[in-house]
Amino acid sequence: MEFSCSRGELLEAVNAVSRAVSSRATIPILSGIYMEALDDVLRLVATDMELGIEYTIPVKTVQTGSTVVNARIFNEMARRLPEGPITFYISGETPALKVRYHGSELTLNTMNPQEFPLLPAILDGDHLILTQGQFKEMTRLVCFAASTDESRPWFTGVLWDISPEEVRWVATDTHRLALLSGQATESVIQQNRQVILHAKTLSDVARLLSDDEASLQITITRSQALLETDRMRVILRIIEGQYPKYQQVIPRDYKTRMTVSVKALADSVDRASLAAIGKEGSNIIKLSSDKNTLTIRANSPEVGHIYEEVFVDVNGDPIPIAFNYRYLQDALKVITTDDVYMDLTATLAPGVLRPVGEERYLYLIVPVRTV
């Protein structure tokens, strides 16, 4: 095997596939990155058997071949190589990979490429095409609401509620829920279906996408999902389990709607959080309103008391309510409209945030009982 490539493109590919390498791999071959040079294309593959990533870059191939190198060492090497062309080759009977650059050379130990579990070809299944921008928006607005508790794996994922008309993405940790609706650029769906994909993995994939207008092709089978761009293939395992009927917890109407500036509310919540953090970790802020003012209070025996006023437009009767400030803060960080609706139905019923002028998104917060 022998090929030459640029450091920049190599580093981009290595960074991408390294996200699929487990730091706790019990099978030695899974700690490696598979490399194959063929037809002036270098294919890199890594997998932990739950997630697999394949990435291709253009190279100048002198001799075709394949090998497997330790992912951690190869990643560090790629970072430290100088700019400019780099040549990789394996010669003779020794399987070591030699790397030549600027008159210098290093040698890396390798593993048997025949032992590496390559990603399967996935052809059959339901097909969707999204823009990469849509996918990145989904991960930004939804994934943060998923749980990190692996004992209930379905809550660590994002539900894809798919129909021919639209896709709904939902995440919840049972304390809050985020929902975004959108339409695929193209879809071939045999019937309505729901699948759960790990939220953290989706966020990792989004970081690898750069062209918001480019297509992201998605194929969903019974047990796996395949995400494809022009250079990358990602295979994710579908999380097994029954996702809760999220529609039942979203209030169909509201008794009070407050319209408030996102920045003003975020700044006040941020200041109020200083007095909401105590030894007990309650993180509670209390909200009440009149016609034009939203009052935010927080109290901690260790810190003190804070009282904030924010200008709002209130439609309906005042409803006092208390939230964990972190859940409110998380939503205000991702909402990009100038103003947001806060819809309330009762003191102990969930509150719902909806960006003004953006009907595709909502964020629900379960209130805290304070008495």
Automatic annotation (TrEMBL):
One of its GO terms (biological process) is DNA strand elongation involved in DNA replication. It comes from Heliobacterium mobile (Heliobacillus mobilis). Keywords: Cytoplasm, DNA replication, DNA-binding, DNA-directed DNA polymerase, Nucleotidyltransferase, Transferase. Pfam families: DNA_pol3_beta, DNA_pol3_beta_2, DNA_pol3_beta_3. It comes from the Bacteria. This is Beta sliding clamp. The lineage of its organism: Bacteria, Bacillati, Bacillota, Clostridia, Eubacteriales. InterPro entries: DNA_clamp_sf (IPR046938), DNA_polIII_beta (IPR001001), DNA_polIII_beta_C (IPR022635), DNA_polIII_beta_cen (IPR022637), DNA_polIII_beta_N (IPR022634). GO terms for molecular function: 3'-5' exonuclease activity; DNA binding; DNA-directed DNA polymerase activity. Confers DNA tethering and processivity to DNA polymerases and other proteins. Acts as a clamp, forming a ring around DNA (a reaction catalyzed by the clamp-loading complex) which diffuses in an ATP-independent manner freely and bidirectionally along dsDNA. Initially characterized for its ability to contact the catalytic subunit of DNA polymerase III (Pol III), a complex, multichain enzyme responsible for most of the replicative synthesis in bacteria; Pol III exhibits 3'-5' exonuclease proofreading activity. The gene is dnaN. SMART domains: POL3Bc (SM00480).
